[in-house]
Amino acid sequence: MERVDDGGPALSGPGGLSGALADALAPVAAGSGADFSVAVLETGSGASGVHGDGSYATASVVKVGILAALLLGAQDEGRRLTAEERSQATVMIENSDNDAATALWHTIGGTNGLEAALARLGLTDTRGDERGRWGLTRTTAADQLTLLRAVFLDAAPLSVRSRAYLRTLMGRVTARQSWGVSAAADGTGSGTRLKNGWMPRDATGLWVVNSIGAVTTGGRTHLLAVLSEGNTDLRAGVTLVEEVARTAVAVAHAR
């Protein structure tokens, strides 16, 4: 059993931001034994790019998708979240509580409910685990960027209230889990909003370490998703994800 903890513009082609990312990240890839992928969007210009197209286990970054699915369902029913749902959502995002995630996973209808909701948000390459283990959902960095667009930029299908609620919780992640894409922020703007995911794989002992969110550098906001697997331990994974995040934002900021 795995231990689990935790439609916008097309991505730039090889000659654009994606090509620049490939060049800048080549030394990072050469120096790491782990595999990674990143997708980034500079919200002001709309410039976006992706490096790597692999599918990765989500670990706890799927909790953003779980909450998005819950909010869509509540919108469809013309209601607000219940007090219990709000309590579960808070600890799921802010503290990465697994019990709360499991409870809300059942509320949204498990794998089928998640896939249906994410499809409405424009995700095309995210698939739930056949045995219903939410942390083993498979996704791509490009799909996670699409999810971030739905939370931070797009007007529908998530309502203004739903998007604001998600962003608020992502801005209150406990300090000990504030690593990851936050490494690319420079302290300007309204603060980093993120969700991280990490877990060792039972078969190999190697770690999945992921981070998604919104960061501000030089007064410009970037949406960023970094996924990785094959890390020797959590510390190595965090170091890799943060180096990739800083590099990707620097490249996007310079375009």
From TrEMBL:
Keyword Hydrolase (UniProt): yes
GO biological process, one term: response to antibiotic
Record-linked InterPro entries: Beta-lactam/transpept-like (IPR012338), Beta-lactam_cat (IPR045155), Beta-lactam_class-A (IPR000871)
GO MF term set: beta-lactamase activity
Identification of the protein by name: Serine hydrolase
Domain of life: Bacteria
Alphabetical list of SUPFAM superfamilies matching this protein: beta-lactamase/transpeptidase-like
Keyword annotations of the record: Hydrolase
Occurrences of domain Beta-lactamase class A catalytic (ranges): 89-227
Keyword Protease in record: no
Entry-linked Gene3D superfamilies: DD-peptidase/beta-lactamase superfamily
